[in-house]
Amino acid sequence: xxxxxxxxxxxxxxxxxxxxxxxxxxxxxxxxxxxxxxxxxxxxxxxxxxxxxxxxxxxxxxxxxxxxxxxxxxxxxxxxxxxxxxxxxxxxxxxxxxxxxxxxxxxxxxxxxxxxxxxxxxxxxxxxxxxxxxxxxxxxxxxxxxxxxxxxxxxxxxxxxxxxxxxxxxxxxxxxxxxxxxx
Length: 183
Description:
The protein is of the alpha+beta class. The chain has a domain at 3-129: 3-Layer(aba) Sandwich (Aminopeptidase). Helices cover 31% and strands 34% of the residues. It is built from 5 helices and 9 strands. Strands 1, 2, 3, 4, 5, 6, 7, 8 and 9 form a 9-stranded mixed β-sheet that branches. The longest helix is centred in the first third of the chain and has 18 residues, at 49-66. It is globular, with a radius of gyration of 15 Å. The model has no long low-confidence stretch (mean pLDDT 94). It holds the Pfam family Acetyltransf_3. This is GNAT family N-acetyltransferase. InterPro entries: Acyl_CoA_acyltransferase (IPR016181), GNAT_dom (IPR000182), N-acetyltransferase (IPR051531). Keywords: Acyltransferase, Transferase.
């Protein structure tokens, strides 16, 4: 099953759904946040509403169509307000890597945990057996979110090349999935 066939997915008071044109301004603004810039290691140095709409129409549409990349929105379930992004990338037959970030206003309400639980359920329903994640070794908030969802650390601090092109010291995590839920 394709990831797109499992969308949207609600968990608590958030919904994980495809990133849309309506999210472009909030997404671009969110990438300007110092914490997102420091820890998100996003592939582009700058995002504008137009560049986000272009991503939705091209890279993201292709990734969803061929099941290789899912750049998704974490949105408020009641208002559909964009809260952040969760991404499945390096998707193959049995695993994918996940990354996430939240806007400053969305932090502290459990949106990241709920978004990750939703995406873990999506991945399991799509037939994946494992999610991998990396967190900057000094980013205690992201590490805590991953662990609260059931990710376990598999490799201690080591240097890796991030999507941004920077070399970063990270911890590696994994989450085993079984039939629509975490193992």
